[in-house]
């Protein structure tokens, strides 16, 4: 029978690969992406190391970020909140970061814009009228918004009809965190009837 996880024995799935690299670097990689504080046991499971070793590595990182070692103090700190650990901006820089984020973060796309963007991403090159036909609504203003955001671009103009064909840009790939449109998931399983203007291809 499998023993329950303790501070001396991290709960790592049987057969799971042991991560490589220095423990402090593995911890930093996890700490950079978590949004809520995680306990030592949770962090130990994530990096595949015993809890005592993780505790010592956490203490090392705290010392490093405070500038108590050879390097300067960092603009962030590793703080324990409610029994869990997470990276935080230092309090004296809260206003600086808030001003930057407030000035940089664009407003969210509307549901209509997201739906139009999805159609263009999967059907490109596609004309405005084709998008409107699939969505069954006028998409003129939404297409202008997507163009202004730099998420889509005019690919070419049809020589016969004069209609402009649209496609997505590298900015969309960056926002989605993918390298190419081939990484988009298949669209058919996401549709009610598996069709509705789309074929079986992802792109």
From TrEMBL:
Superkingdom in the source lineage: Bacteria
Alphabetized Pfam families for the sequence: SMC_ScpB
Ranges for region Disordered: 1-21
Keywords assigned by UniProt, alphabetized: Cell cycle, Cell division, Chromosome partition, Cytoplasm
Keyword Cell division annotated: yes
Keyword ATP-binding recorded: no
PANTHER family: SEGREGATION AND CONDENSATION PROTEIN B
NCBIfam families referenced in this protein's UniProt entry, alphabetically: SMC-Scp complex subunit ScpB
Listed name of the protein: SMC-Scp complex subunit ScpB
Species per Swiss-Prot/TrEMBL record: Microbacterium resistens
Gene assigned in the entry: scpB
């Amino acid at each position: 029978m499998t023993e329950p996880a303790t501070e001396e024995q991290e709960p790592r799935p049987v057969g799971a690969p042991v991560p490589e690299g220095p423990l402090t670097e593995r911890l930093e990689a996890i700490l950079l992406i978590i949004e809520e504080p995680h306990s030592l046991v949770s962090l130990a499971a994530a990096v595949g190391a015993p809890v005592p070793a993780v505790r010592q590595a956490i203490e090392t990182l705290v010392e490093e970020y405070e500038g108590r070692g050879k390097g300067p103090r960092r603009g962030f700190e590793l703080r324990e909140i409610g029994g869990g650990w997470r990276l935080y901006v230092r309090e004296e820089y809260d206003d600086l970061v808030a001003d930057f984020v407030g000035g940089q973060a664009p407003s969210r796309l509307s549901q209509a814009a997201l739906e139009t963007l999805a159609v263009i991403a999967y059907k490109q090159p596609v004309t405005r009228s084709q998008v409107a036909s699939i969505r069954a609504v006028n998409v003129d203003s939404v297409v202008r918004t997507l163009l202004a955001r730099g998420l889509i671009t005019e690919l070419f103009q049809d020589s016969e009809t004069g209609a402009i064909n649209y496609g997505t840009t590298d900015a969309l790939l960056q926002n989605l965190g993918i390298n190419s449109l081939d990484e988009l998931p298949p669209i058919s399983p996401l549709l009610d009837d598996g069709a509705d203007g789309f074929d079986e291809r992802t792109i």
